[in-house]
Design a protein that fits this description.
Strand content: 15-25%
Radius of gyration: 20 Å
CATH class of the largest domain: Alpha Beta
Shape: globular
Largest sheet: 6 strands, antiparallel
Strand order of the largest sheet: 5-4-3-8-7-6
Helix content: 40-55%
Distance between the termini: 62 Å
Structural class: alpha+beta
Number of domains: 2
């Protein structure tokens, strides 16, 4: 962890793949601040690599379209080629497509903003969201946003389900990043994890941003074939008192059951044995 609170990716890994590991580290670092970009010095600090090495790798990634640099600010951002590759990537199942109808119903039933979140190492990534009809909305996280695990209701749900040693490692590693998201710190986050385990769902009650609250639950417990996913709802705090928190959580749990049924059906249709061919 560096002085600016970035979490570097490991640059070791499989022998003979050091350059690949370093490029992956650069891309992950850029992903954490892609909305505002990073200066060369910030990338150097975040990765712990030598400045000439970072410059050379960034130039190579820019040549391939994986990184771009803003002319006016000289800040680096993820490039368009990554978006194009992402469109072609084929996961085991279409997470967004399977979850979208449920996410939309959650937003419609609650009137607030519903999120689908995936864990990525020490981070959470918002992979989809739907807005409800209530005129005052809590659009706290954009699609594609990468944040320290636990700094959103969905991320908190994913963090709370981990073992104590895993929680300790992640919270400690992310300690310097937490202040970036509001008033949250290590002590408060540990308390939020404890509370989530006690009440059975993740709760952010003005803990991160004053006036904004959220609740979250995980998806696919006990399913090693699934990525770590969470559903959450964010709203202005006046709309999420204790009674309504439980009501919203029940809405999410009902949709979580539907999602799991859809996933089971999808796996049944896509992993069924091929029909026998007559000789």
């Amino acid at each position: 962890m560096d002085s600016n609170g970035y979490l570097p990716s490991p640059v070791g890994g499989v022998p003979g793949t050091q350059s690949v590991s370093r490029m992956a580290a650069l891309l992950r670092v850029l992903a954490t601040r892609n909305s505002v970009g990073l200066r060369l010095s910030e990338v150097v600090t975040a990765t712990g690599l030598e400045r000439p090495t970072v410059r050379r790798l960034l130039q190579g990634l820019m040549h391939e379209g994986f990184v771009r640099q803003a002319v006016s600010t000289r800040r680096y951002f993820l490039g368009r080629a990554l978006f194009e590759l992402g469109l072609a990537a084929s996961p085991d199942f279409d997470v967004r497509g399977i979850c979208a109808p449920s996410l939309e119903r959650i937003a419609a039933q609650t009137g607030d903003t519903a999120f689908l979140t995936m864990r990525s190492a020490f981070d959470s990534v918002c992979i989809d969201r739907f807005e409800g009809s209530y005129p005052i909305r809590a659009l706290t996280v954009e699609i594609g946003a990468r944040r320290a695990l636990g700094s959103t209701a969905g991320g908190l749900a994913l963090l709370a389900k981990l073992s104590d040693p895993e929680v300790d490692m992640i919270v400690s590693a992310n300690a310097q990043r937490l202040a970036r998201y509001g008033s949250i710190d290590v002590l408060r986050l540990r308390g939020m994890v404890k509370r989530a385990r006690t009440i059975g769902y993740a709760l952010n009650r003005n803990d991160i941003v004053e006036g904004v609250s959220g609740v979250g639950i995980t998806l696919g417990e006990g399913r090693p074939d699934l990525p770590d996913l969470a559903l959450s709802v964010a709203a202005i705090s006046s709309r999420l008192d204790e009674t309504r928190q439980k009501e919203v959580v029940e809405v999410m749990r009902a949709e979580a059951a539907i999602i799991m049924e859809r996933l089971s059906a999808w796996h049944g249709n896509h992993h069924a044995p091929a029909p026998a061919v007559s000789p």
